[in-house]
Amino acid sequence: MSSKNPGSSTSKRGFASMDEERQREIASEGGRAAHASGHAHQFTSEEARRAGQKGGEAVSANREHMAAIGRKGGEASHGRRGDTKSARSGEKNEEGD
Fold first, then answer.
1. Among 3, 62, 68, 69, which residue is least crowded by beta carbons within 10 Å?
2. Origin, by domain of life (predicted)?
3. Is 58 a residue whose pLDDT tops 80?
4. In this predicted model, what pLDDT tens digit does every residue of 10-42 receive, in sequence order?
5. Residue 23 contacts by C-beta under 8 Å, 6 or more apart in sequence?
6. Contact criterion met (CB below 8 Å) for 26 and 15
7. Is the pTM of this model over 0.70?
């Protein structure tokens, strides 16, 4: 007889079938064990810099994504700038009267 649920195409066995919290616990134990035994990789500052640079290049290659980021930043800064202008123009009107 199959270990799968009747009518279901997924197994109740294995890492992927566990809930996320249990997966995290097991992965965390593995990470601690690797560090304790000296097998875990620890990035040097140069390796980390290169990895970040590579990721930044990959993201910035997507022009559509970069345009969306720029639009969002522009909307945020222009919104603040607009508030400042209205406050300044109000000051000018009060001084001019």
1. 3
2. Bacteria
3. yes
4. 678 898 899 999 999 999 999 999 989 988 888
5. 15
6. yes
7. no
Nearest CA-CA partner of 13 in 1, 23, 3, 21:
3
Helix axes 63-96, 45-60, angle to 10 degrees: 80
Tell me how far apart the 2 most distant CA atoms of the chain are, in Å.
92
Amino acid letter for position 50: R
Per residue, the 3-state secondary structure of the chain, as one string, reads: CCCCCCCCCCCCCCHHHCCHHHHHHHHHHHHHHHHHHCCCCCCCHHHHHHHHHHHHHHHHCCHHHHHHHHHHHHHHHHHHHHHHHHHHHHHHHHHHC
Two structure tokens written together for 8:
């279901």
- 51 Cβ contact list (under 8 Å, min separation 6): 43
Residues 22/29, Cβ–Cβ less than 8 Å:
no
